[in-house]
Amino acid sequence: MLHQVKFAIRVFLKDKFFSTLNILGLALGIAVSIILLLILQNDLNYDKYHVKHKQIYRLSGHMWATGVDATFPRAARELGRVLKEEFPEVLDVVRTNHWGRTLIHYKGIDGTEHSLYEEE
């Protein structure tokens, strides 16, 4: 074991640049792997705290505009009602909204108009 440590130190001192590059590459690879593992674990455990988590589905919409391809957690307003009426497997429907910043226009008591962004 002692000979292996001495050999590693000699190699590191002989070629500092490539040794440092290899160590940084290994550290970066381990860090990225841990981050990807945490993201995957979060995605696989989504809504698992519900008792009937296997019966929960989320509908999303797909949009392609001005060269941007995006998926949003939104669907048509009446889709939930139609799904519940047409498919007996659908027990219940919940709609949520997340607008981010919303521009609010209102008139004050004195009649002046005001505008502000409401943050969530």
Write up this protein.
- There is one protein chain.
- By secondary structure, the protein is of the alpha+beta class.
- Helices cover 42% and strands 18% of the residues.
- It contains 3 helices and 4 strands, in the order H-H-E-E-H-E-E.
- It has helices spanning 2-14, 16-44, 79-86, and strands spanning 61-65, 68-72, 102-107, 113-118.
- It has a two-stranded antiparallel ribbon. Strands 3-4 form a two-stranded antiparallel ribbon.
- Helix 1 crosses helix 2 (16-44).
- The longest helix is centred in the first third of the chain and has 29 residues, at 16-44.
- It is elongated and about 80 Å long.
- The chain starts with a helix and ends with a strand.
List keywords for this structure.
two-stranded antiparallel ribbon; single chain; 120 residues; alpha+beta; elongated
Give me the strand/helix succession. Answer: HHEEHEE
Biggest sheet record: 2 strands, antiparallel
Mean pLDDT: 83
Strand tally, please? Answer: 4
Rg, Cα atoms, Å: 27 Å
End-to-end gap: 59 Å
Strand ordering within the main sheet: 1-2
Helix fraction?
40-55%
Strand content: 15-25%
What's the tally of helices? 3
**Uncertain stretches of 5 or more adjacent residues:** none
| Alpha-beta content class | alpha+beta
The global form is elongated
Summarize the structure.
The protein has 120 residues and is α+β, with helices and mostly antiparallel strands.
List strands and helices in order, with pairings:
Elements: H1 2-14, H2 16-44, E1 61-65, E2 68-72, H3 79-86, E3 102-107, E4 113-118
Antiparallel strand pairs: 1-2, 3-4
Helix pairs in contact: 1-2
